[in-house]
Amino acid sequence: MDKTFHITTFGCQMNEHDSEIMAGMLLERGYRQEKERKDANIEIINTCSVRENADKRFFGTLGQLKRRHEKDPDFVVCVCGCMMQQQRIIDQLKAKYPWVDLIFGTHNISRMPDLLENVLSRRDQEIEIWDGGREIVEGLPARRLFRSKAFVNITFGCNNFCTYCIVPYTRGRERSRAPEEILKEICGLAADGVKEVTLLGQNVNSYRGTYEDPATKDRAADRSADYDYCSFSHLIRLIAEIDGIERIRFMTSHPKDLSDELIRTFANTPKLCHNIHLPVQSGSDRILKRMNRHYDREKYLGLVEKLRRAVPDMTISTDIIVGFPGETEEDFEDTLDIVRRVRYDSAFTFLYSIRKGTPAAEYEDQIPEEVKHERFNRLVELVDQISAEKNAAYEGTVRQVLVEGRSKRSRGSLSGRTDGFKLVNFPADPKNLPEEVRGDARTVQEMEDRLTGHFVNVKITKGKTFSLEGQIVSAN
Ligand code: 5AD
Ligand code: SF4
C-alpha cells in the first residue's frame, strides 16, 4: 500500500509545530504528505482543548471521517494533541469511536511513527498516553511550513495555572530545553536557509536552561546579569550570534515574567524583532486576581510604557477573555479602558469557555451567553478600530518585508511580514516591478520563486484592519 498522510491541525503554534515534527518523522520513513485529506490514506488530527468549540470541531471532523472509514477499511485515522491528555475524552473515544485506529498524547509525539507501524501491521486500536513531565526528546526532524522561517520549541508545558486554562493539565509542568540543543537546532535551520526563528513555549520568558557546556555560559554572560543558568535573554543573545539568522521572535510571554533584562535585550539586540505578544486577558484588577495572573493593570501598563520607552516602534498584540465568571459591566469597562490606553496593534479576543477540571469551571457566577456576546462585540469593534488606525499610520512609509510566498488574499500578489509582524500583501507582476527586483522573471510564479525567503522593501499604500498593502520598491 502506498503510504500517504494528511494532517489536520487545530489550535496554537505549538500544535502547528508538533504537526511539522510528525510530518518530518513520517517523511523520513518514506511516507508521502498530501495537501488534501481526500488524497491520503492516513488522516492525523492534532487537537486543541483550550476552548470548547475546538472540542466540537474535533468531534464534527470525526463524524465526517467515520463515513469514509466505513466505505474504505484501509483508511487509517489517528488522533493526538491536547484533547487526548484528558481522560474523559479517551473514555468517550473508546466508547463511541472504536474505529479510530491510533490515539496518542502530547508527550508521545516522538513515538508516533512506531505506533503507526503497529497499527498498519495489526489493525488494532492503539492507545498511548503519557503523563506530563517526561524528559524532552531531542533531535526530531520537522517538515517546515515555510522555507525561510521556522518554529523552535524552547519550553514545554506551563506552571502558571491561570484558573480558566486547561494547558497545565494537558501539556504538563514547564520544562526548558538545554541552550546547546536549541542552538544546534537553529544552526541546522540557518544552514538550510532559514532566516527567521520563532521561539515557542507557553511562557517563553520564564525559560531557564541548564548549560551542558561551560563555554556556552561564557559566551552568554553579560555584566548586567551573570547567572549560573541560561536566562531567556542569554538564549536570545546566543541565537543572535548565529550567521544567517536575521530575525528572532518569540511567543507567548507572560507579563509577570517580563524582566528589565529582556526589555534591554530588545533595545540592544538588532535581530530581535520589535514585536511582542503580551496577553493581558482582562483590564480589571479583580478579575486578574481571580484568573491568578499575578499582575494588576498598573503593573501591566508600566511594562508597556517601559517597552515603548526602550523600543519606540514596538508593536504589541494581546489575548483577551470576555465574560470570565463574575465579570461585571464595570470590570468589562476596565478591559475596554486598558485596550484604549495600550492601543494594541492586534488582539485575539475570546469568549470565556468552561473547561472541566479548571478552577474557574467551578465558579458559580458564570456569565450568561448573551451578555458575553454583547461584550465581545463591543470589544472587537474597539480592537478593530484601533488596529485600522495603527495600520493607516504606516501608509507612505517603506518597510522591510521577509517574503513568505503567495498571498492568500489577492491573486497575483505575494505576502510577507515586517519586523513588527504586520502582514503585507503586494502585487508581483514582473512587468510592473523595477528591473533590479524583477531580474529575468517573467511570471508571478517566477517572481514567487525568486523572492520567497528574501527581504524586499515595500512602500505601504494602504493600511487595513488586519493587513497592509504595498508596492515593492527595491530588493534588499
Ligand atoms: N476560555 C476562553 N479563552 C481561553 N484561553 C485560554 N483558556 C481559555 C478559556 N477557558 C485563551 C487565553 C489564552 C489563549 C491562548 O486562549 O486568552 O491566552
Ligand atoms: Fe494557560 Fe496561563 Fe499557562 Fe498561558 S500562562 S498556558 S493561559 S495557564
UniProtKB/TrEMBL annotation:
Binding site for [4Fe-4S] cluster 2: 158, 162, 165
InterPro entries recorded: Elp3/MiaA/NifB-like_rSAM, Methylthiotransferase, Methylthiotransferase_CS, Methylthiotransferase_N, Methylthiotransferase_N_sf, MiaB_methiolase, rSAM, rSAM_horseshoe
Record's keyword annotation contains Iron-sulfur: yes
Co-factor(s): [4Fe-4S] cluster
EC numbers for this chain: 2.8.4.3
Function: Catalyzes the methylthiolation of N6-(dimethylallyl)adenosine (i(6)A), leading to the formation of 2-methylthio-N6-(dimethylallyl)adenosine (ms(2)i(6)A) at position 37 in tRNAs that read codons beginning with uridine.
NCBIfam families for the chain: miaB-methiolase, MiaB/RimO family radical SAM methylthiotransferase
Subunit structure: Monomer.
Protein's recorded name: tRNA-2-methylthio-N(6)-dimethylallyladenosine synthase
Gene that encodes the chain: miaB
